[in-house]
């Protein structure tokens, strides 16, 4: 708690700054640092293999965080982050176990091109989910053996009524969602499987309501969402609560390339590193999840985003001991070739660049209900396993081929089909993907496997 108290004092008495001034300062400093450290984007590269540039991006991230600080929305003041605190945090290792009973998983410490895959967390991870399909969508992920946890979506109705944010109805919906997530693990015979979230709450009280041994236990990483190098009192309060109760928690951020403080892929990579450092030094979270998206498409699968995210992942996995995850916000809907291609391109890059955990994926940018399924999570896990055999340059060659199959569709992606049209659901104990969906999954899998360099996996 010492660091939290120290930084709370900065939040109360630190330098006054408007949010707009902070955004401009982050933008200018990140662009300046890209030039200073020689970080340069190449649109032909998706998986960088320049390790010196990755290390430079890490140094730039440290300098960015130390020089601009973190903006506290609640007080309109700046929390200064001491460089000494950043450097002391780099090599602190806190082993991460998630889940309980026979579903307990030790999240591996990963580095670039290691031979074992990242942890696979299925589910819509914050995307919109209808009340009627909520249990089934979670079940579809839980029943996949490759899935080691579920990150559920945001329930949009309760009792058929639209949930107004920050209303008492939300609290009932959050309880129902969490109970359905836990029920899904019991129905599938995987009680104790890690839950991540919850994703429905807009109220802090709703999040803490389900923090219990029955629902989100200390072994289920609970969500603390933050914006670009910003916090507020609610975020800090959640961190204090979870620390006091010994809970694992995941800090999530979705930086927007083309947003108010990110103007280039180089700037995005540096800010992504700085946000990860912020999560470890200030929030003390167990794991940091990034899900950078492109303002033009809203997706995480655009070329600039993958380059920046992969460079950031290389930088972090080479230079600090910390667990990182990545959200997959795909443009296309499920049951489309493009959804599979988007997932494959990202999973391959994340795996070879040392990411510890993959989350999702969700289709239609998470904004259209019910575009997530266990088959998509299975595919993500299989692509990650396959990528453990690749070098950085081999991964880049493969990702370039995959990206060419969907790049021109990012702004007008295929809509696909909602979950209930992709699965045959006879009961919660008897459901599987449709033959059409399975046929497409097999086709894309075989196609990508045929492009793998060297011997078939």
From TrEMBL:
E.C. designation(s): 2.1.1.248
Keyword Ligase: no
GO MF term list: monomethylamine methyltransferase activity
Residues passing through the membrane, by range: none
Keyword field: Methyltransferase, Pyrrolysine, Transferase
EC class of the enzyme, as a word: transferase
GO biological process terms on file: methylation
Keyword Signal among record annotations: no
One Pfam family from the record: MtmB
Biological pathway: One-carbon metabolism; methanogenesis from methylamine
InterPro entries: MtmB_MeTrfase, MtmB_sf
UniProt catalytic activity: Co(I)-[methylamine-specific corrinoid protein] + methylamine + H(+) = methyl-Co(III)-[methylamine-specific corrinoid protein] + NH4(+)
Protein family according to the UniProt entry: Belongs to the monomethylamine methyltransferase family.
Record-given protein name: [methylamine--corrinoid protein] Co-methyltransferase
Organism: Methanolobus vulcani
Phylogenetic lineage: Archaea, Methanobacteriati, Methanobacteriota, Stenosarchaea group, Methanomicrobia
